[in-house]
């Protein structure tokens, strides 16, 4: 997802620690791992996707966390930013790849983890490619390592499987209340993008495809984020701006999370007004350019002086 501009929500931006992962980050990682494991067991053909999203988000809260972003359920050629809208009727298909991307925060400490499920067992190579690329990337996340070298390793592993990495999707540095905190972990080799440093948190997420290795924005937008705009608007649009800012701060939210008992209020129209006023930004669903299947695997790691600590592995 896109990053907040410098200075937005400055009061919520946290610190980078160098004395081991914060206890809230450890708790967040355990919750994310548990929810991802439990939701994976719910994936079967015919299941309503909106019910899977609601179940995952309720489990995060039940276990003591808060969703850091809406559950992403991305099927086949859909790579990212896919969550159910209100009244979604879509279902898990009979075959193909289903990507589950879970984000949790505890007191602003975010962890982010994902895996891919091969529904009918015919595309296992995709999953092996991103699983192995992630494993290789994690071993390289040592203090002083060039982030471009990590991308180079991811690219090489994925190509060994005869697939292409998605070059315009990347892993990302995490800070308190910041899902994308500046540094990137590319899925291909890049130069001059900085080094890994002790005390940092990273979400590393290789993507693989048989397509072009590029994603494009679709017309569908179901995930949004506040921009930090302080300029007052009018009427119901202003009330919604304040509500969204107070409720979600700098973190992404789903259109289906916003409801009202007043039938005279058109929430979708008000979201359009907020987009036009640049009080919020949308995250279009991203799809592989040629419509080919995409796999994803992701963990969040903390960088200690001795190397990476994976926060989102099951115990």
Helix/strand layout:
Elements: H1 23-40, H2 49-62, E1 66-67, E2 72-75, E3 78-80, E4 97-106, E5 109-118, H3 124-140, H4 147-160, E6 164-165, E7 170-174, E8 184-186, E9 201-204, E10 207-209, E11 215-226, H5 235-248, E12 253-254, H6 267-276, E13 280-288, E14 294-296, E15 299-304, E16 307-310
Antiparallel strand pairs: 1-4, 2-4, 3-13, 4-5, 6-10, 7-8, 7-9, 9-15, 10-14, 11-12, 11-13, 15-16
Word description of this protein:
The protein has 315 residues and is α+β, with helices and mostly antiparallel strands. It folds into two domains: 10-214 and 290-310, Alpha-Beta Complex (Creatine Amidinohydrolase), CATH 3.90.230; 219-284, Winged helix-like DNA-binding domain superfamily/Winged helix DNA-binding domain (Arc Repressor Mutant, subunit A), CATH 1.10.10. 28% of the residues lie in helices and 26% in strands. It has helices at 23-40, 49-62, 124-140, 147-160, 235-248, 267-276, and strands at 66-67, 72-75, 78-80, 97-106, 109-118, 164-165, 170-174, 184-186, 201-204, 207-209, 215-226, 253-254, 280-288, 294-296, 299-304, 307-310. A hairpin with a 2-residue loop joins strand 4 (97-106) and strand 5 (109-118). Helix 1 runs antiparallel to helix 2, helix 3 packs antiparallel against helix 4 and helix 5 (235-248) packs across helix 6 (267-276). It starts with 22 loop residues before the first helix and ends in a 5-residue tail after the last strand.
């Amino acid at each position: 997802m896109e990053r907040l501009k410098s200075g937005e929500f400055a009061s919520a931006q946290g610190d980078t620690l160098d004395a081991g992962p914060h206890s809230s980050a450890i708790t967040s990682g355990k919750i994310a791992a548990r929810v991802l494991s439990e939701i994976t067991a719910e994936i079967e053909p015919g299941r309503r996707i909106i019910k899977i999203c609601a179940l995952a988000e309720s489990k995060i809260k039940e276990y003591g966390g808060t969703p850091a972003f809406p559950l992403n359920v991305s099927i086949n050629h859909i790579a990212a930013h896919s969550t159910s809208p209100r009244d979604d009727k879509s279902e898990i298909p009979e075959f193909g790849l289903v990507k589950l991307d879970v984000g949790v925060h505890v007191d602003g400490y975010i962890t982010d983890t994902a895996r891919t499920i091969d529904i009918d067992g015919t595309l296992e190579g995709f999953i092996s490619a991103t699983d192995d690329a992630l494993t290789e990337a994690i071993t390289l996340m040592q203090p002083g390592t060039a982030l471009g070298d990590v991308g180079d390793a991811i690219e090489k592993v994925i190509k060994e499987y005869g697939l292409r990495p998605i070059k315009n999707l990347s892993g990302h540095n995490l800070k308190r209340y910041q899902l994308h905190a500046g540094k990137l972990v590319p899925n291909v080799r890049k130069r001059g993008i900085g080094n890994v440093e002790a005390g940092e948190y990273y979400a590393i997420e290789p993507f693989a495809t048989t397509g072009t290795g590029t994603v494009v924005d679709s017309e569908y937008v179901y995930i949004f984020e506040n921009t930090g705009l302080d300029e007052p608007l009018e009427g119901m649009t202003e009330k919604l701006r304040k509500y969204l800012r107070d409720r979600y701060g700098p973190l992404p939210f789903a259109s289906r999370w916003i409801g009202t008992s007043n039938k005279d209020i058109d929430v979708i129209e008000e979201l359009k007004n907020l987009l036009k006023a640049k009080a919020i930004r949308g995250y279009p669903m991203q799809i592989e350019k040629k419509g080919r299947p995409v796999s994803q695997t992701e963990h969040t790691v903390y960088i200690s002086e001795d190397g990476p600590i994976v926060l989102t592995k099951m115990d």
